[in-house]
Amino acid sequence: MKQVEESCSVVAVTGASRGIGRAVAEDLAHHGCWVWLIARDVNDLDQVATKIRQSGGRADILAYDITHIEEAPRIMDYIVQRTGRLTGLVNNAGTTRRGSLVEISPEAYDEVMNLNVKSLLFLSQAAVRVMETGGAIVNIASLNAFDVLKGVGLYATSKAAVMQLTRALAIDVAERGIRVNAVAPGFIQTDFNAALWNRHELREWVETNTPLKRLGVPEDVVGSIRFLLGADSAFITGSVLVVDGGVLPSRLWPL
Ligand SMILES: NC(=O)c1ccc[n+]([C@@H]2O[C@H](COP(=O)([O-])OP(=O)(O)OC[C@H]3O[C@@H](n4cnc5c(N)ncnc54)[C@H](O)[C@@H]3O)[C@@H](O)[C@H]2O)c1
Could you confirm whether the keyword Cell division appears in this record (predicted)? Predict the structure, then answer.
């Protein structure tokens, strides 16, 4: 276990029960952070927390639906009561609903925008209020925030909002000594998109056309998030770090 970094000591991670969020939580705990795992399913979270504790790390769970934004202040207060402070927040939980924007329903719009954008903002707002000695927030955007993959227009719209929200919040909280950045992953294999990667032709296309010649895994994303939470990025705020194996600069899309 490495020494606890001052700027990375107590971090809340949303969507920590699986995929990228789980990998992030495990990585932060491995590097000495006390992690607070947030997702809806208490059993899934328990498994992650147990694994972290068995490896010598420190993890607690908070099982709730983050779209219940009225809970956010109470959640952040609770973490501070238990730990003395909150220094980091990783807004990772996200969802998608496929379909043309011509046909997308108001219900799908609310589901995606409420989780990806609204809950992210109000959780960040609650975190900022308790980060008395400064801190860092990292939001998970997406390649789709830059270029739109056909069929995920709603998701792309939400992630573009995450990117601009990151910049705007960074400006609004800078005077409090809080930094806000985003990581934009490319094609990362998780439960989120498992159905996509079962389509052989699509998987092959991505592997061929990603300059680094492979799909990403959650562990490919964790280092960038730890960096943006930690002291090595002390002069970086309002930035978006793309972690995509080179897809964005190559501007090639599978559809
Ligand atoms: N996997 C990719 O290729 C990829 C690419 C770019 C961006 N992203 C983004 O990365 C993030 C994580 O993606 P993933 O692939 O690990 O997803 P995932 O579906 O595997 O995990 C999502 C996590 O969010 C949690 N969650 C969902 N709704 C919630 C709610 N209402 N309240 C609390 N927790 C909730 C889930 O329980 C789960 O822990 C998302 O924001 C996603 O948009 C993923």
Answer: no
* Mutation choice for ligand 1 from 36, 64, 89, 92, CB with most ligand atoms inside 8 A: 92
Ligand 1 near 43 CB (within 6 A): no
Q: Map out the domains of the chain with their CATH numbers.
A: 6-185+217-250 (3.40.50.720)
Cβ–ligand 1 contact at 18 (below 6 Å): yes
pLDDT by residue (tens digit) across 6-30?
Answer: 445 999 999 999 999 999 999 999 9
What's the whole-model pTM score? 0.96
Please state the separation of Cα 67 from the chain's center in Å. Answer: 15
User: Where do we find the tokens 């995920």?
Assistant: 152
Compute the distance between CA of residue 248 and CA of residue 255 in angstroms, rounded to an integer: 15
Instruction: Round to whole Å and give the CA distance between 167 and 119.
Output: 17
